Amino acid sequence: MQDSIGIPACFSSGEKPSDDPAAITRSGQSVFMSVFRIKIADHCRLITVTWCKNLLLHGLSVSVEGPEGENQYTCKVELKPWYFWRKQGSKRFIVDGRAVDIFWDLKAAKFKGETEPSSEYYVAVVSNEEVVLLLGDLKKDAYRKTGCRPALIDPILVSRKEHIFGKKKFSTRVKFHEKCRIHEISIECKNRSTTGGNNMSNVNSLGGVEPEMEIRIDGHLVLHVKHLQWKFRGNESIHVNKTRVEVYWDVHDWLFSPGLRHALFIFKPILSSTSLSSLSTSSSPPLSSSSPSTPLSSQTGSSGSLEGLNPSGSSEFCLFLYAWKVE
Fold this sequence. Notes:
Blueprint: H1 21-27, E1 30-40, E2 43-53, E3 58-65, E4 71-79, E5 88-95, E6 98-105, E7 122-127, E8 130-136, H2 139-146, E9 149-150, E10 156-166, E11 169-174, E12 183-193, E13 209-217, E14 220-225, E15 233-240, E16 243-250, H3 252-256, E17 261-270, H4 273-278, H5 296-300, E18 318-325
Parallel strand pairs: 8-9, 10-18
Antiparallel strand pairs: 1-2, 1-10, 2-3, 3-4, 5-6, 6-7, 7-8, 11-12, 12-13, 13-14, 15-16, 16-17, 17-18
């Protein structure tokens, strides 16, 4: 089921938003996807909200999971500067015989150079006369426009997936859980010269340089990986405030594959011992400590194997960051 309004370049007509690396590379776009679990038509379903940005425009897509677990209901919005009437509107789906409405107002949305707007907008999903999902800061405007009350069950953020481009440094912003503040994540790949002196690492370096990687959160160095040519895949635990976060990385293609290639980083907060133990009982296999011979993408799967809820009902949130290195 498709919307008749314009489709931005980052979406293919008749398909859900592409997560294929080749499609991302061809378009040269930044993509930001958020997956929520909410109650629609008396069933828990996944809703995927996708923002994209290229040199010409921003785009928005909202996909509702259908009865067979596929994103069968999709609304796509194109934000070209001259298409003023397309920055506000609504779309109705019929899901299992129930009406589901999507409302948006992006007329004054402020992006500040980012893929996702930061203020002056709303995107609302309505089911059974309840606003089951509300994004943006114009909440009063959204409730007034929809004429509906807030849902009794809050949406659960399952995962966020972002494609970003850069040369050496990659940055994003994230909340590891709803009650914490937004954190700034910065990833930087550096080359340390190994020429001169009696340095045994010269033998194992790449062209006289030894790659290193630094990960900072809110400006503080939390992870420093040396000898990256040997440690291009791995994982470590860090602590952000009092929250333990598992960090997984796979930068093999940055170092050994020609052309435009991406690295994959996963940030997985462990909120408590209960949620940690539930990973082993979850229907999706947890990520293990990855060896250099096992690509991280094969452990996560195409949709991310850690997406979902654990048996205790707490969120198993993951941030998937695809960092495309541009020479």
